[in-house]
Amino acid sequence: MGGAPEEIHAGIGLPTTGWAVERTDAQDRRATGPGGQTATVTDHVLLVRRATG
User: Fold this and answer.
1) DSSP alpha helices (H): ranges in the chain?
2) How far apart are CA 10 and CA 17, in angstroms?
3) pTM of the model
4) Would you give the distance in Å from CA 11 to the centre of its chain?
5) How far is CA 6 from the centre of its chain?
6) How far apart are CA 17 and CA 8, in angstroms?
7) Which member of 10, 12, 24, 32 has the greatest number of CB atoms within 10 A?
8) Which phi-psi region, left, alpha or beta, contains residue 20 (left: φ > 0; alpha: ψ -120 to 50)?
9) How many CB atoms sit inside 10 A of residue 12's CB?
10) Could you tell me which of 1, 43, 39 has the C-alpha nearest to residue 24?
11) Bridge partners of 43?
């Protein structure tokens, strides 16, 4: 499943109530592959928490 954190959140099918989005982030970083090639990759973070009550 690819896409921005907001797209992933929409795609996983959590109910619209009962869950709190704590963090959405997309951070670029340089990575080196096993053959020594480098590329910019994006790490997507989606942190959701079940709402209490």
Assistant:
1) 5-11
2) 13
3) 0.62
4) 12
5) 8
6) 17
7) 24
8) beta
9) 11
10) 43
11) 27
